[in-house]
Amino acid sequence: MSIPYGPILIVEDVPNVQELLEVTLRFKGYPVITANNGQEALEKIAHERPALIITDILMPKMDGYALAHNLRKNPLTSAIPLIFVSATYITAEDKRFALSLGGVRFIEKPIDTEDFLLTVAEILTQGVPTLPQPLEDEDFYRGYRERLEGKLRYKHTQIARTERLLQTLPPDQKPAFETLLQHAINDREEIQRELNELTLFMEKFEKGEE
After folding, report:
1. pLDDT reading at 2 higher than 80
2. What is the CATH classification number for the domain harbouring 163?
3. What are the phi and psi torsion angles at 172 (to 5°)?
4. For the chain, what percent of residues have pLDDT higher than 70?
5. Neighbours of 7 (CB within 10 A)
6. pLDDT at 130
7. Do 21 and 97 sit in the same domain of this protein?
8. Biological process GO terms, please (predicted)?
9. Beta strands 8-11 and 52-56: pairing type?
10. Of the candidates 152, 165, 133, 140, which has an alpha carbon nearest to the alpha carbon of residue 191?
């Protein structure tokens, strides 16, 4: 199966999800390369330009939003089509922000593999996509912070609900929700870390230190 130029780059930090996407695409004959976060993705792209990027949003070191912003600011990578995939950032506001960064599609997890393959094939056969102008740094940082703050509030609520529920469940039902709780806590910590880093960066940016 031929594609326009280069492999498909999957950017995903959860190993089983990365493997699912990679196996699904390779089974259809697509060449695939992978990265575990946005920072690693940029390093891969510097050596091999992909035909398409499929990226998660919530990731360590550099998440999908920051990756997209970096790609759109660089004339060498600004035209690479990008699909966002997420289980966490799925509100209407999250999706609008993703598309404002130049995402051509947004797919929610869990992924329907048939729909996923159709989406990939459509994008690769449509030619160079018409993308919005890259956001100014100030607009990106403001929108990014709003998304992180909104997601942090959601995670606080989700954790509180799960903790209350665990107090009422019979022992045999608790393990599944304890796992859910731990995932939510891990997500909250990652979002808080990103928000702290972004706040510090914005303070420097506003002072003209960046």
Report:
1. no
2. 1.20.58
3. -70, -15
4. 96
5. 18
6. 80
7. yes
8. phosphorelay signal transduction system
9. parallel
10. 152
